[in-house]
Amino acid sequence: MTTIVAEESPSYPAPLLPGLALTAAIGVASWAIAWVEQRAFGHPVVEALVVAILLGMVVRTLRAPSARAAAGVRFAAKELLEAAVFLLGASVDLPLLVRAGPALAVGIVLLVVLGLACSYALGRTLGLPRRLAVLVACGNSICGNSAIAAVAPVIDAEPEHVATAIAFTAVLGVCVVLGLPLLVRPLGLSLYQYGVLAGLTVYAVPQVLAAAFPVSVLSGQVGTLVKLVRVLMLGPVVLFFAVRHRGERGERGTLRIGQLGRLVPWFIVGFLALAALRALGLVPPPMADVAKSFSGWLTIAAMAALGLGVDVRAVSRVGRPVVLTVTGSLAVLVVLSVTLIRVLAIR
């Protein structure tokens, strides 16, 4: 019979401030680089959170963080990242699922599920570790870096795997932004259809804007709407992997109070709760904007911390299979998206 006993709160053996200060400094530098990109090109070519993880890796390569900073770096990589995912729920607009139309909404759900299955299978076939294959599949199928960052803590992913998945997904994301508009004529897509294609295939919301609006305003508006509906899948997918991971660990018997929240992590419950409150109109748009901005800052700091924990040599060892998996998964996603557009007769 399962019993519940009290579990002591974890204590941190070292001060958090040195490590948090280091991750914050890298985060500010990353934001500054993205700002320069914004001014030079009209949009960040490489997002700030990707810059943060790369800078963290550079700092780690030049000089590994001291033992005094280790506790703060670990805190930023886990607790700050969980808080960022929680706050992200305030920026999700659930009614978009209804406004996009039931057929398209069902199609998007089906696309995400098929994309996850195909990407994961491809990754495992190419020899990726199971958790890395999950991260790459989630990044490709849902919303790139945000999905990878959200799934990583619930499956206990290694920092090297998180960094690798984000780095290669981000690089390919830039290529998609530049190359996807070239498919409009060969595929005979209308401006509306191209917007749907961009929303279904491009990883991050800012990248959707960069890939769709230069084609037309209509493409940009449709792409953004479809992309946001696709992002709604993040909560259910993370919840699925949280429950599945716990089952794989076979955690039975004595169940501690602190472990109850690990079946359904607190930040996923919070994400879904904030999304529901937003849908009910209980989260005003200004407050949602603040939560989204704060979530972005926390994510950048967490990515810097992940970079600081990455051994570049470990990343290089798994690089080629990841490149092949991400590229192959993207090709499958484009084919599935075009098929969906044709089957649903989207004009």
UniProtKB/TrEMBL annotation:
Domain of life the protein comes from: Bacteria
GO-annotated cellular components: plasma membrane
Family matches, as Pfam families: Cons_hypoth698
Record's keyword terms, sorted: Cell membrane, Membrane, Transmembrane, Transmembrane helix
Subcellular localization: Cell membrane
InterPro entries to which the protein is assigned, alphabetical: UPF0324_pro
Protein name: Sulfate exporter family transporter
Provenance organism: Gemmatirosa kalamazoonensis
